[in-house]
Amino acid sequence: MSDEQRNTVWRFAIIFAVILLGFFAVLGKIIYIQAVERDAWLKVAEKQVPTNKPIKATRGNILDCNGQLLASSMPQYYMYMDTRVPALHEKQDALFRAHIDTLAQDLSTIVGDHSAADYKTRITRAYLRGEKRLRVCDHRINYLQRRELEQNALIKKGKYKSGIFFEDQHRRIKPYGVLASRTIGGIYGEDGVGNSGLEKRFDRELRGVDGMSSIQRIGGRNESVTMEEAKDGLDVVTTIDANLQDLVENALLAKVTQKNAKWGCCILMETQTGYIRAIANLDRGEDESYYEAQNHAVQRVEPGSTFKTIALVAALDDGKIDIDDTVSVSRHPWKYFTVQHTDAHPMDTLLTVRSALAVSSNIALAKLITRSYEGSARKFVRRIEKMGLMDSVYCEIPGADKVRIDVPKDTVTLSKMSYGYSVEMSPMQILMFYNAIANNGRMVRPMLVTAIRENGEDVKRFRPETVKSSICSSRTLSDIKGALHDVVWDDHLGTAAARLWSRKAQSTLVPIAGKTGTAQLYIRGHGYSGKHHRMTFVGYFPEQNPRYTCICMIEDPQYPYDAGMDCGSTVRVIAEQTMAYTGCYVYENGVRKLEKR
Predict the structure, then answer these.
(1) In Å, how far are 33, 264, 353, 402, 420 from 308, measured between CA atoms?
(2) Of 175, 198, 225, which residue is a domain's last?
């Protein structure tokens, strides 16, 4: 082999050795990275992956029937500063030093939670430490405050020069405060899931659909890129009239405060449609003030004497009694098997069925109903079922109780049912029944929502619903209306009629018909108490052409108590103010008359 050939072989050998050595070097590096540096490089890789971040949808509004806000999500903002941005540090911190004083002064003037000197000290310290995410203000600022701050010379330069940026949050507010608060409901967190009231029932519509953004590295900076826009929630339009709600709550508040009651509930319904124009629930707190704590309007209780009307409608419509039939009552208790029935207004007399309802005689009702249904109590309950009271009537308020009217196992229980014990109904259900009487026998469902709206346009509407076209015969209806008239206008017998200095439910401005109710409270471990009562008045107005039906229920008022005086007078005040507010009166030749619409 020649020298030249040997040199060629050596060159190839050297080249091959270099290639082989390089291969093993690369292979060793790969093994080293996999075995030793794997976790570190995975973290680097993770940083290069775009970070997804939800874009919160704005929760829809809850509106009253006139478009006024009852609940809304208002934007609020946290203000942050990245003190490390290069622009602030250029030319020996020239930009920072030039603007720190005006920034601190604007923050003090507009936000106001610190002095200008405190703001300057706070920001300067963070700047020297190189804080990445300084929360500039202790609390969230509102939209107007943000707009004012954005006029500051430093903030105007944008977040990549000033380091200042805003993160928005949405806070659920109720512009009218506690007005109808329990019915409107609440949400979990700042703008989360509805947990009560209409907020819960219509949570899906109100919540909307969140969007999605991605934090990506663009041009050496992290940028937020919108991947999918958020779809804001829809608006819920209620039947509530904020002005009527206000007057109803004020009337109820005045009465429960005067009587130092445990709680009070008041509902105002539009007779023909079933629209709830106002619904108030007030509980006495530990500080003796009243708050919207529970929705008593849909919680069932023993109705007391307001149930007497239901019992008489059943007996009259079944042909068991006639409105002019008579029944004897005594100032002494009437013993029926193991129970003694007594009257709040004891007298020795003979009452007609009509006057028995007017004076609200427990003895008379117990005698009439046991005489009519003794041995056939099931028929009594079945007749009540036919009125529609026990139908599964839809209600927009979650957790609303159903009526409880069970077939009594004995006639003693039947006798107590006749005047509202051993049965349970919510104020809303009692109101629905009396509204049917006012509505010529047609029972309509109580309604709280009329529409779902998007961008001011209705996407879904809810129409008034008829539960029963007629709860009883026209004759029974006429007879009962006459008896309910006497409750208010028979000055001798009526439990809601005028007495000496008290007008009770009698109004000189608007005629009202209705029924009082009084029930002893059951105290666990002690039975029914003669010292603690639940008072009720439910009525409709104007009597001859009813437009509204209203119920007022007061739990455990301070003695002395009287359903006609306490609840009847409250409904009277509401009736007078409602008719004045809605403009239902006209003047003819200087005389004020009810306008017929």
Answers:
(1) 88, 22, 11, 19, 7
(2) 175
Mean pLDDT across the chain? 89
Q: What share of the chain has pLDDT > 70, as a percent?
A: 86
Give domain status of residue 1, yes or no.
no
Q: Residue 379 has what pLDDT?
A: 96
Instruction: Write the CB contacts of 498 (distance below 8 Å, at least 6 apart in sequence).
Output: 491, 504, 506
* Cβ proximity of 127 and 83 under 8 Å: yes
> Which of 2-16, 66-80, 395-409 has the weakest average pLDDT?
2-16
Question: Is pTM, for the whole model, over 0.85?
Answer: no
477 and 456 assigned to the same domain: yes
| Pair 282, 146 in one domain | no
Residue 278's DSSP bridge partners are: 268
Do the beta carbons of residue 447 and residue 393 sit within 8 Å?
A: no
Which long-range contacts (C-beta less than 8 Å, at least 24 apart) are formed by 143-148?
A: 143/74, 143/75, 143/76, 143/77, 145/110, 145/111, 146/77, 146/79, 148/106, 148/110
pLDDT at position 120: 93
Beta bridge partners of 572: none
What dihedral angle (degrees, nearest 10) is formed by the CA atoms of 28, 30, 31, 33? 120
Grouping H, G, I as helix, E, B as strand and the rest as coil, residue 417 is helix
Question: What is the tens place of the pLDDT at every residue in 144-200?
Answer: 888 899 999 999 998 888 999 988 777 788 888 888 889 999 887 655 788 899 999
For the chain, state the CA radius of gyration: 37
Q: What is the DSSP string of 67-126?
A: S-EEEEEEEEEEEEE-TT-HHHHHHHHHHHHHHHHHHHHHHHHHT-SS-HHHHHHHHHHH
Contact 165, 159 (CB under 8 A): yes
Q: Which two tokens stand for residue 365?
A: 């009702």
Domain of 191: which CATH number? 3.90.1310.10
420 and 519 Cβ atoms separated by less than 8 Å: yes
Question: 493 and 538: one domain?
Answer: yes
Going 538 to 300 to 279 to 595, the CA torsion angle's sign is negative
Residue 571 lies in a domain: yes
Per residue in 241-278, pLDDT (tens digit) is 999 999 999 999 999 999 999 999 999 999 999 999 99
Say yes or no to pLDDT of 77 above 70. yes
Longest C-alpha distance within the chain, in Å? 150
Answer whether 538's CB lies under 8 Å from 430's CB.
Answer: yes
> CA 126 → CA 83, 107, 120, 131, 135, distances in Å?
7, 16, 10, 5, 10
The total number of structural domains in the chain stands at 3
259 and 216 assigned to the same domain: no
Whether residue 363 contacts residue 329, with contact meaning beta carbons closer than 8 Å, is answered with yes
Give the angle subtended at the CA of 114 by the CAs of 112 and 118, to the nearest 5°: 145
Separation of alpha carbons 163 and 127, rounded Å: 10
In Å, what is the CA distance from 86 to each residue of 125, 162, 217, 345?
17, 9, 17, 88
* Whole-angstrom distance, CA of residue 548 vs CA of residue 180: 18
Angle of helix 474-489 relative to helix 307-317, nearest 10 degrees, comes to: 150
